[in-house]
Amino acid sequence: MSVPHIVVVGAGFGGLHAVRALAHLPVRITVIDRRNHHLFQPLLYQVATAGLSAPDVGYPIRKLFHGLPNVTTWMAEVTKIDRATRTVTLHDGVTVTYDHLVLALGMVTNHFGRQDWARATIGLKTLDEALEIRRRVINAFEFAERTEDAEARRAMLTFVVVGAGPTGVELAGALAEIARKTLMGDFRRVDPAQARVVLVDAADRVLPAFHPDLSKRAWHDLDAMGVRVEVGRKVVNVDARGIQIGDEFIPAATVLWAAGVKAPDLTKTLGFETDRAGRVKVGPDLSPAEDPAVSVIGDIAWFEQDGAPIPGVAPVAIAQGKHLGKVVAARLAGKEAPPFVHKDKGALATIGRARAVAQVGKLHLTGRVAWWTWLLVHIMSLIGFHNRLSVMLSWAWAYVSWNRSARVVLQAPLGRPDAPPPPQPVSPPSA
C-alpha cells in the first residue's frame, strides 16, 4: 500500500501550520510556493516604512521543514489544477499527482477590475512591494529636497493611503512618524514635516471591523499625528498625477492601495462555490462540498459560523492549519473528521508610537497598554529566535531614538517608467 501524498500549495500561516500538523502522520508531503520564504505579513508595513529589514519578517521555507524527512519543498508557481486526474501543473509544465490537496494560497490585491489603478498604485502583499514602497517614500523626500517647483514638491510629499483597515491605518501612522520625527533635521532645503499623509476609505469610519469606540479612538490618534482622514468618500480615479476622491483631486506622487483583497484567479478555475472575492466555501471539515480530496484554509477559505463568515486573519489561518492535521488523521483511520470551530482571539491594530487599539471579546484596550500588547503578541508570533531578537532590538532603538534603521534603498535605473520624475535643477546654497 502506497503512502498517501499530500500537496500543500502556499507556505503562509495556514500552509506552514498545516504541514507541521500533517508531518507526524504516515504521509508524504510536497510544499509548493512561488517564493522561497514564509512571510510574516502583519509586520510587512514596517519593512515598507523602513522600520525593519526584509529578513526580519521572512524565513526560509526549507529551513522551516529541515527536520521533517517526509516533507519536500518546491519553489514553483501552480498554474493549473485538474481535480479529475488529481494533478497540479507548475509553471514549467511539470505535473504533480496528489491524494489530498491543501490550498493555502492567500489573497492578492483587489483593484476592482481597474488595471489602470493597479498601474498607478502599489499594494502591500509581498516583500517586493514593501521594498518598492520604501524606495518611493525615501526617494520622494530626496527629490523634494532638490526641486525648485513648489507644486511638484507638494505633490512629491503627498502620500495617499487608500483603505482604512489595519494595514492602511498602520501605513498612514508610520508615514506620519517618518515625516514628523524620523527625518527631522536630515534635510536642508525642505522640511519633512510639510509632508501630507491622507487616509481614504469609502466606509464611514476607520477600522470598520473594530468596535465603533475603538474606531473613534484610532481616528483621534491619526488626527493627532497629522494624518488627514477622509472616510465615506469613494475613489473616482487614480493616475500618475494623483487621486480623485469625490469631486476633489489630490496631486500625489505616491498612492498606496490597501483597499481590498481577492482570491487568486486560480481558485475560479476549480468549480467550487465562491463568494464575490473568490473565496472558496468550505464546510466544518475545511473541504468544499464538491470535493473532499481538497482542503482550503486561510484567507481564501469562506467558512461560516453562527451565520456569518469568519475573518481572514492570521490567527484563523493558523487554527485551520492545525485543525487540518486532525481532519486528515481521522480520514486515514476511517473515522469522521472533527468539525472546525472558530474561537475569536480578538484583533489588534497599531497607529503609531504608544498608540494602538485592541479588541478581545468585550475587553477594549487603547493607548500604551494596547501598544505593548501589540508588541508582545507580534514578537511571540515571529518565527525563529534570530528574527525575534532582531525585531526587538530594532524596535528598542526606534523607541529611544525615533530612528528607523532600514532606510537604505536600491535606486531604480534611470529611464525606468516607475522611477520618480527628475527634479528641477537647482544651485547649491551659497556659503
Describe the structure.
The chain has two domains: 5-34 and 76-107 and 263-332, FAD/NAD(P)-binding domain (3-Layer(bba) Sandwich), CATH 3.50.50.60; 115-260 and 353-401, FAD/NAD(P)-binding domain. The strands form nine sheets. A five-stranded parallel sheet has the order 5-2-1-9-20, covered by helices on one side. Residues 413-417 and 422-428 have low confidence and may be disordered. Helix content is 32%, strand content 24%. Strand 1, helix 1 and strand 2 (28-33) form a beta-alpha-beta unit. It has twelve helices and 26 strands. By secondary structure, the protein is of the alpha/beta class.
Task: Spell out the blueprint of helices and strands.
Layout (H helix, E strand, L loop, with lengths): L4 E5 L3 H10 L5 E6 L3 E3 L4 H5 L5 H4 E3 H4 L6 E5 L2 E5 L4 E4 L4 E3 L2 E4 L4 E2 L5 H6 L6 H20 L3 H7 L1 E5 L3 H17 L13 E6 L10 H13 L2 E5 L3 E5 L2 E4 L2 E4 L2 E4 L3 E2 L17 E2 L12 E3 L4 E2 L1 E2 L2 E2 L4 H19 L14 E6 L2 E6 L2 E4 H15 L3 H17 L30
Parallel strand pairs: 1-2, 1-9, 2-5, 9-20, 11-12, 11-17, 12-13, 19-21
Antiparallel strand pairs: 3-4, 6-7, 7-8, 10-18, 14-15, 15-16, 22-23, 24-25, 25-26
Helix pairs in contact: 1-10, 6-7
Helical element count?
A: 12
What fold name goes in the CATH topology slot of the largest domain? FAD/NAD(P)-binding domain
Gyration radius (Cα, Å) is: 23 Å
Mean pLDDT: 91
List how many beta strands DSSP finds.
26
Instruction: Supply the CATH architecture of the largest domain.
Output: 3-Layer(bba) Sandwich
Regarding CATH, which class of the largest domain? Alpha Beta
